[in-house]
Amino acid sequence: MEEKVFYIKSITVQNTIMLFSLSVVAFFLAYFILKRYRKGIILFTIWIFLVIWFFNSPFFGFSLVGVSSKGIRIDYGILSFRNTTLPLNTPWKIESHLTGIRKNRLLYDISIGSYRSMRVRAGKGLQKLKEIGNQIEIQKRLIKESNYSKKEGKL
């Protein structure tokens, strides 16, 4: 069965934000390199590392999940080094979090192993997380059934 892809939040918007942030910092770094201003070069080199660190930090969840018989593909975006594929038997759960200054907004995310998604509101966002979980379970069942039928065929 081919991979079924779920977009938790728009990966295009996320990649655009990542590339825009990096390009602004890189522009200023190039400007200070041309002007040979050492403090600016040092400052914006540090900023480049901070931008890359932020998009690879635990503050930033994944936005795209692909589920297939090969596993669960998790994609954080173009600047992330954490994009990975997990086995189908990786535990998952949908969690709720109170957020905001007064802790009165309820947001949800899906945890797959030690990886967390971007948080979404109830409604379409929560429904999308449930669809991801259902698709993982369907793939597990299909793998189990195909393994069972292979065993039956050998007997």
| Estimated radius of gyration | 20 Å
The largest sheet has its strands arranged as: 1-2-3-4
The average pLDDT is 88
Q: What is the β-strand count?
A: 7
Largest sheet: 4 strands, antiparallel
Q: Helices and strands: which structural class?
A: alpha+beta
Helix content: 40-55%
Percentage beta strand: 15-25%
Q: Number of helix segments?
A: 3
Low-confidence parts: none
Shape: elongated
Describe what this molecule looks like in 3D.
The chain is an alpha+beta fold and 155 residues long. It has helices at residues 11-35, 38-55, 124-154; strands at 4-7, 64-68, 71-75, 84-86, 92-99, 105-112, 115-116. The protein has one domain (4-154). The protein has three helices and seven strands, in the order βααββββββα. The chain has a four-stranded antiparallel β-sheet with strand order 1-2-3-4, with helices on one face. α1 packs antiparallel against α2. The longest helix is centred in the C-terminal third of the chain and has 31 residues, at 124-154. It is elongated, with a radius of gyration of 20 Å. The mean pLDDT is 88.
